[in-house]
Amino acid sequence: MIDRLRAFWRNIFKRENANADLDEEVQGFLEMTAAEKVRCGMAPEAALREARKELGGVEQVKQGVRDTRAGVSLDIVMQDVLYAFRTLSRNLAFSLVVVLTLALGIGANTAIFTIVNGVLLKPLPYPEPDRLLMLWESSPTDRNLGTVAAANFYDWHEQSHSFEKMAAIDPYPDFILNGSGQARRMVGAAVSHDFFSLLGVHMAVGRDFLPEEDHPGSNHVVVLSYSTWQSLFGGRSSVVGSILRLNDADYTVVGVLPRNFSFVSKASDYQSRNRFDLWTPLALPSPPEAWQRGTHSLCVFARLKPGVSQRQAQADLEQVARNLQRLYPKDDKERGITAVPLAQHVVTDVRVALFTLLGTVGMVLLLACANIANLMLTRGESRQKEIALRIALGASRTRIARQLITESLVLAVTGGLVGLALVFAAVPALVRHLPADLPRTSEIMVDWRVLSFASLLSVLTAIVFGLLPFLQSRRISPNDSLKQGGRGIVTDQSGLRGALIVGQVAVALVLLSGAGLMTKSLWELTQVSPGFQTENILTARLSLPPGYTNGNVYGTGKHPRISLFQQALLDRVRPIPGVQSAAFATYLPMTGADSSWAFDVQGRPPKPPGVFDVANYRPVTAGYFDTMRIPVLRGRGFDAGDTGNNPLVVAINASMARTWWNQQNPIGQRVCIGDEKWRTIVGIVGDVHHEGLGTKPEPEMYIPYAQVPNVEARPIIVLRTSVEPASVTGALLRAVSEVDANVPLDQIETMTQVVYGSVAESRFRTCIVAMFAFLALFVAAIGLYGVMSYAVSQRTREFGIRMAVGATRGAILRVVLGKAAKLVSIGICLGLIGAVLLALGIASLLYGVEPFDVATLVSVPILLATVALLASFFPARRASKVNPMECLRYE
User: Fold this and answer.
1) DSSP 4-62
2) Is 153 exposed, middle or buried, given 0-12, 13-18 or 19+ CB atoms closer than 10 A?
3) Residue 710 in 3-state DSSP?
4) What percent of the chain has pLDDT over 90?
5) Is the pTM of this model over 0.85?
6) CB 222, CB 278: distance < 8 Å
7) Cα separation of 653 and 501, whole Å?
């Protein structure tokens, strides 16, 4: 029986054809064994049971056969892989070129994909992120989304029925840490008590806020960020219950956020304040006060109830909006509510830019694959005798094709691994140079999605550049290839090579056109005058303790402690050697900080309820226009006499004068802003690109700091110097400490740095696209050079015959260059179509440049044609210099 069983297994294992039905095979053996037992006197049923027992069960037998066959297949695969390594190692230069080319292409794509994955594709780091929404106040006329008034948030929370939770954040509170030596400014945020539970965040230490702590007078508790916990308390778990002296008041630490907590936000929503040191309760009064319906400072988050769709929630909110419009027509008329998925809102401004970068590096990889395909075709033609001999010895064409594809996979996987190593080294450096306002940068890392992308990319590239040698091998004739000489019998691949070069030229033209448009756009952007002189200006932010604002009455325009501090500091700063002038401002241009106020013009008909004239609001001190070199176009700027005890004045910019006074002279006219007091317009100043160089200047009104209608406790000091601005930083710090050591100073930057940082996103995007575009140009040129060199070597005998019968060197040169020029011309024509489509796709990223920019669409093809023809010239010159006698003997 054992011998027969072994014979049965050998019979199956040795079978090369795996198409037999295992069930029939095993059943037949069982019947034969059972029949023998019956002949020995055993009952049929018992004989069958014994036969099954001896075989260990039919299913086990079948599984054993399957496993063995899999082992045989694995052995074959390993043989192919080992043979591929041996073959490639004998052509080390070829293998290194292919691997390095793939490593650059796959590495670049994976690096950019890592950024796209972290910012766009990865789910938000909260439980069930698809149920998270942001709620905004909206206007049906301009469709702009705005922050929410505290009173409106209260009503939304009370009247809506579609949300499991609704919470708000006020990202503007600042805290001064006292009692730990030098005063330190802490970036704070005030949130409603269920903010963290709405996001699904659990504290690493301690607890979340309690509902009773979210009321005025009970809110002196604080939750720390993980980094603040480490820096202030050394990571002690006993931190809960500790007291922090913040803004001259005691706050009790109740919790610490986890290390991996990331507040996912769009930085522009919070004026670049999306990284907070500590969090306190929002503590809104219940019900809210009347003035809180006109002050819009909250960002509102909501989590949908299970089973409720966004559309249902939006309908619910629209009903709430109609109720508020009816109840509060003065503040909420024509004011709607818009719900936006949090994941969508965060990446709205960067989606096009990031996918543009990913598409750019994807085209570079296509170029690399085309070059490698040309190399593989060349190598495949040189291996035709080898392949023909293997076929003649009995190898099937399927076996040969599998070997060629295995070699391609080995090259692609090796290139992918090297590229992945480059990604691990490059991504941290790349993240450090990303624009500061790019959201979710803390989540950019190599994870399973990135590894899967790199693996898929490696396999796809192997298929792309390995498919051509596979197809080539199917056309080999063993008889012809093994003939003596064999030369000239090789399958002609010139058409395929030419098509690859045409594609490379077209792709390179598309990338160069995109890079040209974006480079010109960046140039136009940097040439925009910001409206002031950026050179030799030092800026720094101060945070005044609450004592400077306590006791000031809203709307009085009198803040004596603030005015005294500012004047005392200016008196100490102006005599510093190298300082020419100094002044204070509340909102520094190009920093993202901003504010706007409604106003009325005296003598004009009142506006309908809910309709306002609005302009940006800029409190500054005397000397600000001179320090920033903002020109005073008409009238005057501010002087030392514009204090809270003197007539109220205002200066407006040219855009505001044009918008509301057209050709009339506004000097002497009076306007009323938030404090309901009339102010006389005393001057018109030049426009400033406050929001950024790429934005249009908006109407602005400047108010003397001593006459502001509300408390401004975070002033910016600006100094114009005759020396390097950074050299006076130490003297500035000493001056502030001498006036009040409890006033921290931070964000010390030159104005040149501020303006440079304002175009960081555009500059980063342009540099990446330009870098890969010129890499594409280089790859295309190398590819053309390789193809023309191979064509020359294949036509050496032909050139010898031509020259032997009288052809000149110039004629040979023209033949070769003419072929190259034809390929390049076709590629340029196809590339221009792609360039036009790309230009339309990136139109939103351009400033001051039309998508169909004639200069770019003309200069780029000329550059590409010049480089391509230069790459073709050297093989052509070599062809024109060959010796005709040697050519006629060439084999």
Assistant:
1) HHHHHHHHHHT-S-TTS-HHHHHHHHHHHHHHHHHHTT--HHHHHHHHHHHHT-HHHHH
2) buried
3) coil
4) 30
5) no
6) yes
7) 57
pLDDT in the model for residue 842: 84
Q: Nearest Cα to 853, choosing from 838, 839, 864?
A: 839
**Per-residue pLDDT reduced to its tens digit, 620-658:** 999 999 999 999 999 999 988 888 788 999 999 999 999
Contact call for residues 148 and 137 (beta carbons, < 8 A): yes
Is residue 815 pLDDT above 70, yes or no? Answer: yes
Q: Which two tokens stand for residue 884?
A: 């005709």
What is the widest separation between alpha-carbon atoms in the chain?
Answer: 127
| Amino acid sitting at position 784 | L
- pLDDT for 477 equals 60
φ and ψ at residue 573, rounded to 5 degrees: -80, -40
**547 contacts 248 by C-beta, under 8 angstroms:** yes
- Residues 6 or more apart in contact with residue 433 via CB below 8 angstroms: 764
Both tokens assigned to 385: 């005798």
Distances (CA, A) of 249 to 213, 221, 243, 558, 831: 16, 11, 10, 24, 66
**In angstroms, rounded to a whole number, what is the distance separating the alpha carbons of residues 275 and 579?**
33
For residue 543, give the 3-state DSSP assignment: coil
Q: Residue 491 has which token pair? A: 């399958």
Write a three-state SS string for 387-431: HHHHHHCCCCHHHHHHHHHHHHHHHHHHHHHHHHHHHHHHHHHHH
| Closest by Cα among 889, 583, 512, 609 to 751 | 583
Closest by CA to 346, choosing from 223, 441, 447, is 441
Token couple for 415: 């290139």
Structure tokens at 881: 């210099």
Q: Which of 2-6, 326-330, 503-507 has the weakest average pLDDT? A: 2-6
Query: What is the C-alpha to C-alpha distance for residues 838 and 362, in angstroms, rounded to an integer?
Result: 14
Instruction: Supply the DSSP symbol for 175.
Output: E
Looking at residue 677, what is its pLDDT? 82
pLDDT at 68 over 70: no
Report the chain's mean pLDDT, rounded to a whole number: 81
Please check whether residue 505 is in contact with residue 831, taking contact to mean a CB–CB distance below 8 angstroms: yes
- Whether the per-residue pLDDT at 335 is higher than 90: the answer is no
Q: Respond yes or no on whether the N-terminal peptide bond of residue 606 is cis (omega within 30° of 0).
A: no
C-alpha to C-alpha distance for 661 and 677, rounded to whole angstroms: 20
What sign does the dihedral 131-323-170-699 (CA atoms) show? positive
Residue type, 800: G
The dihedrals phi and psi of 459, each to the nearest 5 degrees, come to -65, -45
Angle between helices 796-804 and 760-794 (to 10 degrees): 60
Q: In the 8-state DSSP scheme, what is residue 576? A: S
Closest CA to 336 of 70, 67, 127, 142: 142
Q: Which of 427, 420, 421, 418 is nearest to 445 (CA)?
A: 427
> Considering Cα of 446, then 447, then 451, then 456, what sign does the dihedral take?
negative
Report CA dihedral (55, 56, 62, 67) to the nearest 10 degrees: -110
- CA-to-CA separations, 522 to 419, 721, 860, in angstroms, rounded: 30, 29, 17
CA atoms within 13 A on the CB side of 362: 10
List beta partners, residue 279: 189, 223
Domain ranges of the chain: 2-79, 140-334, 544-743
Name the strand (E) or helix (H) holding 618: strand 613-620
Helices 796-804 & 809-841 angle (0-180, nearest 10) = 140
Proportion of the chain above pLDDT 70, given as a percent: 80
Strands annotated E in 375-481:
none
